[in-house]
Every structure is written in C-alpha cells, then in structure tokens.
Amino acid sequence: MKKYTLLLLFVFTALFSCTTEETTTYYLIRHAEKVRTDATNRNPNLNDAGKERAANWGTYFKNIDLEAIYSTKYNRTIQTATPTAKQKKLPIQYYDPRKMYTEEFAAATKGKTILIVGHSNTTPVFANKILGEAKYKNMNDDDNASLYIVTIVGSKKKSRIEILE
C-alpha cells in the first residue's frame, strides 16, 4: 500500500509540474494629476493632488509582489512611480511609448508582475497591445484613477479595470 501511495504522489507531482503555466500580470496606470498652469509645458510635475495619488498608488501596491516598474521619461510618470519604487526598492526602468510591448519586453517580463506608468493615450494602447485586441479606448484627460490589470496564463489573456479613488 505504501508503494502505491508513493507512486500516486509521484505521478500527481509530475502531472502538476507539467501543467503549471507561468502567470504574467501587468498593472498599468496613467500618471497622477499634473500641474496645468502652463499649457505650453510638455513636461509638468505632479500637483499636490497628484502627489497624494502617487502615494496612494504606493499603498495600493504595498502587498503586491512587483518585480519591475516601468515608466516613460516624463516628470509626471516618474513622480507617480517613485513612491511605489521606493517602497519596493526597485529601480524605475524606462520604456519608449512609441515601442510598447515589443517581443523583447514580453520576453523580459514573462512570468513576472509588472507596474507600467504611462499616459491617457498610452496606457490603454499598451493594454491593448498586450491583449492583442483593441479592447480599450483612450482615457479621459481627467482620469488618473483607472488601473488596468492584464493577466496572461499560458495563451489565455484576460483584463479588467479597477478604480483607485
């Protein structure tokens, strides 16, 4: 009887290890509220409400095991990512919003949990590129609270949006 139990345990373990698929999770957010006093400034900082929201994002991600944080090279995205990066002791890596979800990016992030900070016109596009379909439209310019979560398990992809108020 003991031999059969060991054999069943071995077979179960072998089957489980062969069928376990990696999970990749992307959290995509738009930068927090920015200073809007100078319409000609293409690289504004966060305003006070934005600094508070960036801190709130840090709290949101506190118990999520992020393995990397990506941001565009704009003050507002970097400042949004910074509280979470400091808390997680992770460097902020930069991506070019004109080259989202390349083969190299997909390979480098496969099986990981990633935060990506972008813009109203890049965050939904990035989510769409990961999903391989045009599911999401551009965000409203006053939407700094939407969190796109895209999960990939094997070849199955799913997504949802949560709101951080």
Strand content: 15-25%
Give the termini distance in whole angstroms: 58 Å
Please report the total strand number as a whole number.
Answer: 6
Name the overall outline: globular
Q: Mind telling me the CATH class? A: Alpha Beta
Helix content: 25-40%
From the 3D coordinates, which CATH architecture would you assign?
3-Layer(aba) Sandwich
CA-based gyration radius: 19 Å
Structural class, from helix and strand content?
Answer: alpha/beta
Count, helices: 5
The order of strands across the largest sheet is 3-2-4-1-5-6
Strand count, sense and closure of the main sheet? 6 strands, mixed
Explain what the structure shows.
- The chain is of the alpha/beta class and 165 residues long.
- The chain has a single domain (22-163), classed as Rossmann fold, CATH 3.40.50.
- The protein has five helices and six strands; from the N terminus they run H-E-H-E-H-E-H-E-H-E-E.
- It has helices at residues 2-19, 48-60, 75-88, 103-109, 123-131, and strands at residues 23-30, 68-71, 92-94, 113-118, 146-153, 156-163.
- A six-stranded mixed beta sheet has the order 3-2-4-1-5-6, sandwiched between helices.
- Strand 5 and strand 6 form a beta hairpin.
- The protein starts with a helix and ends with a strand.
- Mean pLDDT is 91; it is low at 4-18.
Topology:
Layout: H1 2-19, E1 23-30, H2 48-60, E2 68-71, H3 75-88, E3 92-94, H4 103-109, E4 113-118, H5 123-131, E5 146-153, E6 156-163
Parallel strand pairs: 1-4, 2-3, 2-4
Antiparallel strand pairs: 1-5, 5-6
